[in-house]
């Protein structure tokens, strides 16, 4: 399909199969496409797959990080939460507003997504999609190539810029139609479907709710603390216990940079633990006992735990019992 006047579209590209197919469908119609890749503090995103799509289809990609503004939305989402702490409707509105701002700068006249009607119960229902378009100021400007034939015409379809007959009518949560379409379009190297957002993870949501309950506001610097380690609530304080060498290194670096108390068992392999909040009477002892419990030290022996960064020094403690651990642990 050729056009006398080249019309540019801006695609929201996650790097997953659906958005990759949407971009390929537009490129195959000879349209000029640029892409934008949004990330948040809760993304488990694969930037490499985004860059692969960019290179394969010769589509420039803009990378945008949604930071503190997004955290404020998570703390108080106007359209509420999904099944966990996900704010899919407000997230999509925020992304499309960001896309619109970028689109105005680069001269984009329409927007493309890999959304599939009915794939996600919270944000990909027809009414939710219409609400998102309206609140983002993009009525009839968002083209969803994979489900286009099941939805009303966008402006670029009505004007004949995009050939609607060459678009698709995929709906629901089954992935087989997309996989078949990928083979048809020659898209073979794509990542397996996986949870890309920690806000949809039930265990992470527990930790995030706990954080919000005590803090009231999300801080960007604290988000990494919610992503790693075993997480415990001891009164108003929190303790994080590393699970492996990589997490131990991260916790040690954070403790040094931000002045957290750090705990290590002397003479035995084990975790690094950090204490967040006031070191009230008994709290330091409990974190020391936790650290001992997850080390290689014999559970029936008193061991030395070094508290680094404060005035406590070395404590002699026994490992914390399993029943007490259950009362303190915020499960991941």
CATH architecture of the largest domain: 3-Layer(aba) Sandwich
- Annotation field: number of helices: 12
The number of distinct β-strands equals: 12
- Fourth-level CATH superfamily of the largest domain: HUPs
Task: Provide the low-confidence segments as ranges.
Answer: none
Q: So what's the oligomer here?
A: single chain
Q: Give the CATH class of the largest domain.
A: Alpha Beta
* Overall mean confidence score, pLDDT: 92
Number of domains: 2
Structural class: alpha/beta
Rough outline: elongated
Tell me the strand order in the biggest sheet.
Answer: 11-10-8-9-7-6-12
CATH fold topology of the largest domain = Rossmann fold
Please indicate the percent range of residues in DSSP E strands (runs of 2 or more).
15-25%
Helix content estimate: 25-40%
Structure notes:
The chain has 332 residues and is of the alpha/beta class. It folds into 2 domains: 8-185, Rossmann fold; 228-330, no CATH class. Helix content is 38%, strand content 17%. The protein contains 12 helices and 12 strands. The protein has helices at residues 17-28, 47-57, 68-75, 88-106, 126-136, 155-158, 176-185, 202-215, 223-227, 245-258, 283-293, 322-328, and strands spanning 8-12, 32-39, 61-65, 110-112, 142-143, 230-234, 237-241, 261-265, 273-276, 303-308, 313-317, 329-330. It has a 7-stranded antiparallel beta sheet with strand order 11-10-8-9-7-6-12, sandwiched between helices. α2 (47-57) links the parallel β2 and β3 (61-65). α1 (17-28) packs parallel to α7 (176-185). The longest helix is centred in the first third of the chain and has 19 residues, at 88-106. The protein is elongated. The mean pLDDT is 92.
């Amino acid at each position: 399909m050729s056009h006398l006047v080249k019309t540019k579209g801006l695609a929201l590209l996650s790097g997953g199969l659906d958005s990759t197919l949407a971009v390929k469908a537009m490129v195959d119609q000879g349209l000029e496409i640029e892409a934008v890749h949004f990330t948040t503090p809760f993304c488990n995103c694969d930037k490499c797959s985004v860059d692969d799509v960019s290179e394969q289809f010769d589509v420039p990609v803009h990378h945008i990080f949604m930071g503190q503004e997004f955290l404020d939305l998570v703390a108080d989402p106007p359209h509420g939460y999904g099944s966990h702490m996900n704010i899919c409707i407000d997230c999509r509105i925020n992304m499309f507003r960001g896309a619109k701002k970028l689109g105005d700068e680069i001269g984009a006249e329409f927007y493309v997504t890999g959304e599939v009607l009915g794939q996600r119960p919270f944000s990909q229902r027809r009414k939710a999609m219409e609400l998102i378009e309206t609140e983002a100021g993009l009525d009839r400007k968002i083209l969803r190539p994979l489900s286009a034939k099941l939805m009303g015409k966008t402006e670029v379809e009505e004007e004949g810029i995009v050939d609607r007959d060459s678009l698709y009518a995929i709906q629901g949560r089954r992935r087989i139609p997309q996989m078949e379409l990928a083979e048809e379009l020659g898209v073979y190297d794509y990542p397996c479907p996986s949870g890309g957002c920690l806000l949809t993870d039930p265990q992470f949501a527990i930790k995030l709710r706990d954080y919000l309950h005590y803090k009231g506001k999300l801080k960007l610097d604290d988000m990494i603390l919610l992503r790693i380690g075993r997480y415990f609530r001891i009164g108003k304080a929190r303790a994080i216990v590393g699970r492996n060498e990589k997490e131990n290194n991260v916790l040690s670096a954070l403790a040094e940079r931000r002045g957290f108390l750090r705990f290590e068992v002397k003479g035995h392999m084990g975790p690094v633990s950090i204490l967040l909040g006031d070191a009230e009477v008994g709290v330091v002892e409990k974190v020391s006992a936790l650290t001992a419990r997850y080390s290689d030290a014999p559970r029936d022996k008193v061991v030395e735990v070094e508290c680094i960064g404060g005035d406590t020094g070395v404590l002699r403690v026994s490992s914390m019992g399993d029943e007490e651990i259950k009362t303190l642990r915020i499960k991941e």
